Amino acid sequence: MQEIDREIAIIAAFLKPYAAQLTSVWIPLQIALIGTAALIAFGVAILIRRRVDLVSMTMGLPPYVRIVVRALWDYLGTILFTVLVFLMRVEMLVLTAPSRSYLLSVAVNLATAWIVIVVLTSVIRNKLAKRIVAVSAWTIAALSIIGLLDRVQQALNSVAITIGGLKITPLLVIKTSVLLLLALWAATAASNFLDRRLHSYSELTPSVQELLAKLARLALITLAIVVVMGSVGIDLSALALFSGAVGVGIGFGLQKIVSNLVSGIILLADKSIKPGDVITVGNSFGWVTNMGARYTLVDTRDGREYLIPNEDFVTQRVINWSYSNPQVQLEVNFGVTYGSDPHLVRRVAIDAAASVPRVLATPQPVCHLVEFADSAVKFTLRFWICDPIDGVTNVRGMVLLALWDAFKREGIDIPYPMRDLQITKPVRVVIGDEAPSPG
Q1: From 3.30.450.40, 1.10.150.120, 2.30.30.60, 2.60.40.420, which CATH number describes the 271-320 domain?
Q2: In a designed cystine with 80, which of 41, 339, 341, 360 is the match (CB 3.0 to 4.6 A)?
Q3: Triad 373, 377, 378: Cα angle to 5°
């Protein structure tokens, strides 16, 4: 606490000469000039925005150039304010001593720093990250402009706690947080760029593309963390005991997440599941559209998207309709009456299946008599398709409709349930209002 009090006293002593100038006429004059410049600049900016169409002006420019122009356009008032205050500062230097226009100099430098930071951070897509980076950078620039940066650093570095030989100070926490945020943003942007590049190589299979993209992302994020820790002077060996204890606790808490991550890497490595495959896992049928670090996205034909954990593909039975061969065999079971000719039924069923456009001619459909049941002769019709991604239930329906039409045309009857009622005792039927006789 004594060190903090000493730093506060030093900062107060630093600001004392400037506080004394508040009694001078030059301070109110500079404040009035700054306020006037702000009113004029933002008023002119509003008039310019009303008369100029930014979209038509930037049409045809490269994307990043449009982003920068948009950032400058949003802060047009600040740019005009900086220009006006700079001109006032130049005029004040001609008319009087430099110390009497100090506030104008500070205002110009702060506004210029903000404009430069806004332009540089305009390429960051994440709004929260962009805001944090901009505010942090401008705060550091503002402290440097007014000459308090070293004092603030000393104050933040004067308080510390020691954990396992590592001295943790507020300054270390701030530096680590800012650098870690920037490094993770850069690693994420680089991994997204590599992901797009890898998916553009058609010679790589989808599973290999996803595997390389996930490994690149993991390696870049790990490298970013290690570089930041080393740049701020943190010895990773000093955190061995602490990180080991934390790692055990996190390991139990993140057991399922780690399991899904490892399962996803295994699936990509052995190519058992890859984007574009048509699968059935549990009651979910659809095609794989994306394989993430924790889950696999399965898109169904009814518009629903199932987020299935990667672990389920390793521990459960999965049907991959297009694992090594896109051709899939389907079957339709049906029955006919005993009065129908089974040889005719087989020929009609095969011709009906072959008439469906999605049914393959090779291998050709086959029909087998499988059972003489109580009330029907049962058959199984098997046929092949090569596009399971377009659905299997719909092609079964088309085959059944073709069978129905063919059976109607050939006079083949499809049996329906019939029940025989046997009466063992005499039953008297009463018609109308006749009352039953006694006994």
Answers
A1: 2.30.30.60
A2: 41
A3: 85
Neighbour tally for 220: CB within 10 Å: 19
Domain 328-410 has CATH 3.60.21.10: no
User: 168-253: what fold?
Assistant: Helix Hairpins (1.10.287)
The pTM assigned to this predicted structure is 0.46
Both tokens of 280, joined, read 């059935």
CA–CA separation, 220 vs 214, rounded Å?
10
Q: What are the pLDDT digits (tens) for 340-385?
A: 899 999 999 999 999 999 898 888 999 999 999 888 899 999 998 8
Structure confidence by residue, pLDDT tens digits, 37-71:
888 888 888 888 888 777 777 776 777 777 777 77
Smallest CA-to-CA distance from 89 within 75, 105, 78, 100 is with 105
Answer positive or negative: Cα dihedral of 58, 63, 69, 74.
positive
| Long-range CB contacts for residues 220-226, cutoff 8 Å, separation at least 24 | 220/187, 220/188, 220/190, 220/191, 221/184, 221/187, 221/188, 221/191, 223/187, 224/180, 224/183, 224/184, 224/186, 224/187, 225/180, 225/183, 225/184
Which residues are registered as beta bridge partners of 297? 290, 307
**Beta strand extents in 197-277 (DSSP E only):** none
